[in-house]
Amino acid sequence: MGSATSPITQTEASRDFGCALSLVVPIAAAGVDELTSKCDECHGTGGNGTDPKVPNIAGASATYLEETMSAYKNGDRPGVKYKPKNGEESDMGAIAKDLSDEDIAALAQHYAALPFKPVPQQVDQGLAEKGADPYDSACEKCHTEGGTLADDDAGIIGGQGKAYLEQQFKMFSDGSRPMPKKMAKKWETVSDDDLKAIIEFLASKS
Hints:
By secondary structure, this protein is an all-alpha fold. The protein contains ten helices and no strands. The chain has helices at 10-28, 32-43, 62-74, 92-97, 101-112, 125-138, 144-147, 162-174, 181-187, 192-203. The two termini are 30 Å apart.
């Protein structure tokens, strides 16, 4: 499977942004309600929605959220077109470009303070069980506790919608979404069948 690598790891990027977080949040706090109302149109009220194509962002670490929004803004992570109900089609790349660094920091702090709720969905339990071993071998070191621990600063992937996970896995495999070098090496060791099982494993987390 083909893959692309990013010139920096998430940890390295986190160090760059983390120091500035406490300085800029108060500047944007007054307008955070207006900002979050726009985010909630796609990600659900309080960052938790029910559309399996969209990730729930509540509960992820502020470091991860800030790093991710900055990656969209800088073009380091490609956005995916999405049209919410009663809304206009857009993608995170276009949305993030309109956010200041202060906006990004304030949004990260806001959603990090909220509890994560898994996306409600049907899961193939048998396939999910088969995904446990390849997940433990290739993913658990960075995405611990089945991808549910925010403190990893790697995002919450356990409990996300299968459609979102399938889309992101495809982008990793075809190289359209870069990944850190450590992840790329692990990715090459996982078969397509194992990836399908890992998706069910992650979706089963609640």
